[in-house]
Amino acid sequence: MNTNKHVEQENVTAPNRQNWGLIRRILAYVAPYKTTFILGLFFLLLSTATTLAIPYLASQFADITTIPAVEQTTYLQRVGLLMLGVLVLQGIFSYFRIVLFTIVSEKSMADLRRDIYNKIISLALPFFEERRIGELTSRITADVTQLQTAISINLAEILRQVATIIAGIVIILMTSFRLTLVMLATFPVGILAAVFFGKYIRKLSRQTQDALADSNIIVEESLQSIQAVKAYTNEWYEAKRYKNSLDHFVAIAIQTSRYRGLFVSFLITVVFGGIILVLWFGANYVKDGMMTIGELLRFILYTGFIGGSVAGTADLFSNLQKAMGAAEKVFGILDEKPEVQHLTQQHFPPINGNIDYQNVVFHYPTRPDLAILKGISLHIEQGKKVALVGASGAGKSTIVQLLMGFYRPTSGSISIDNRSITDYDLTALRQNIGIVPQDVVLFGGTIAENIRYGKPDATNEAVIAAARQANAYDFIMGFPQGMETMVGERGIKLSGGQRQRIAIARALLKNPNILILDEATSSLDSESESLVQAALEQLMHNRTTIIIAHRLATVRNADQIYVIDQGQIAEQGTHEQLLQHHEGIYHNLIKLQFEHA
Question: Which of 109-113, 331-335, 558-562 has the lowest mean pLDDT?
């Protein structure tokens, strides 16, 4: 189920319980750093207290006339020094508050990013078939950054503003109860506005995050396929596609800002309208002798602080709504069911490589109405080479994907060494299977790092030995940096044949008991194919091997050939046996390939 879509469909008018659930989950990531967080709160309170002391001290200047003339100079010096000291302390407390909250937000969000990434790479292939890479990247980057801002800035500021409002109200109550009632009369209007605007801001914020993710997807896809973009001279097309996506994002963001602007403007009008009323009533109280000028100034200053805090809290509240929208998407990924629970490995003997498919039927989860495999039954003995041939889309690659546990059969069973693959620990199963694909994926590091990907703890000597066996050592040492040569993004600096031999070296280093060769030589020239084929012969020695090939010359020596046609086994036998069926599919494929050779 697509969690993100599910969240979008939930009732936005009743988000309170859901909000508290999200807040609890966010705070769970803050919990390991609670000591630093509490210390940050302590400095936050000190910073707020010193800030609130300034208006009180400022109001003392206005009452200078109530002090005897001989004491006025000393009084002014004392109040001035107190204000200077408070300002210095306020700066020190603010520094520690900012640093401590930043430490908490950086560390807690790093933990969250790790959890998201670990969850993403643990999910099954159907999850990735329903989502695009740019969307997932946006979850880790933009959405978590939104949460980080909420913790490091918005949350601290909201706490500071709330403390300012509460302390300010207490002070003005002590200064003038009647004026305080006038000021507080505007609060219910502001609360109603927050409830009304909040639900729309949150909904639009989620849409804004989705639009930004769509823009990231376009960037990701175009850069990953930059050769195709340039080959077809479609830079203009990708630029236009990105522009349209950005325009959509900007339109939603502007609409969101309109609601935020209305919300903040309305609150500012209400709050400062209340201040104007306070000024009018206060001036009359001073005129009637019910207040001193200093008390009125103190009340006005604190009312201004309270009004500014209320207005600031409104903007921060809308930012928190955006953060809640981001949190829904982030935790939606974390709530996805992982690929499979790992089972204990200690009771399983080593895998030998006897493979059985029994009446296997399979539909892809995204296409439940289309059967890809229709009752496949085949047997592969330990150490034998079996080839799967047939037209594109016949189901050959699906057969090996099921063996590796990427998907579960719709019905039927697959077993290795007379044990169902569902009984194996998935990690242990895949550690015993090596694959050399047609489109080799190399990572953007060094050649040595890419070979060592087959066995991360391998020694340098083992890496070199694998490169030699794969006929890759000579071309590797032909580079100035040798094994430390950077291969570039997806191995772009290497030729197809070189990438294939790196993949073979990687598989040799892994030393699996079961080997899958998926069109491993189909895209190579004759010279590269010869070198790669020699390396493959070395790799296949004494291993159970499944060969998927269109170029039938590569499967002549297979112990058994299965011809797959429309999800079924149409023919089976050795190369010589299948050639005897002059009207058969295999014979026809051989004939067509020789005619076009």
Answer: 331-335
C-alpha 340/C-alpha 533 separation (Å) is 36
| Token pair recorded at residue 499 | 């990438």
- Asked if the model's pLDDT at residue 96 lies above 50, the reply is yes
Give which of 249, 285, 433 is closest to 355, Cα–Cα.
433
Residue labelled with tokens 């309270």: 306
pLDDT for the residue 549: 78
Q: Is the pTM of this model over 0.70?
A: no
**Beta-carbon neighbour count of residue 13 at 10 Å?**
8
The alpha-carbon radius of gyration of the chain (Å, integer) is 35
Distance of CA 400 to the CA centre of its chain: 29
| DSSP tally for the chain: helices H, then strands E | 22, 10
Q: What separation in angstroms does the CA of 528 have from each of 34, 67, 467, 501, 535?
A: 60, 99, 15, 9, 11
Q: Which two tokens stand for residue 512?
A: 């699996």
Cβ(395)–Cβ(564) below 8 Å: yes
Contact 570, 564 (CB under 8 A): yes
Give 541-556 pLDDT, tens digit per residue: 888 989 887 666 668 8
Picking from 323, 314, 330, the residue whose alpha carbon sits closest to that of residue 19 is 323
CATH number for the segment(s) 3-334: 1.20.1560.10
Taking a C-beta distance cutoff of 8 angstroms, is the pair 302, 172 a contact?
yes
Structure tokens at 103: 């430490």
Contact (CB, 8 A) for 135 and 20: no
Q: What CA–CA distance (Å, rounded) separates 51 from 171?
A: 13
- Output phi, psi for 288, to 5 deg: -85, 0
Q: What is the mean pLDDT of the chain?
A: 79
Q: How many CB atoms lie within 10 A of CB 580?
A: 11
CA distance 519 to 408: 23
CA–CA distance, 150 with 128 (Å, rounded to integer): 29
By mean pLDDT, which of 16-25, 113-122, 403-412, 428-437 is the weakest?
16-25
Q: If residue 570 lies in a helix (H) or strand (E), which one and from where to where?
A: strand 568-573
Within its chain, how far is the Cα of 355 from the centroid? 37
Mean pLDDT of 350-358: 88
Across 313-330, average pLDDT: 74
pLDDT (tens digit per residue) in 482-491: 888 887 766 6
pLDDT interval class at 14 (50, 70, 90): very low
Nearest to 172 by CA among 159, 187, 194: 187
Cβ–Cβ < 8 Å for 337, 99: no
Describe the crossing of helices 34-62 and 293-334 by its angle, rounded to 10 degrees. 160
Nearest-CA neighbor of 591 among 579, 573, 574? Answer: 579
Structure tokens at 169: 């109200």
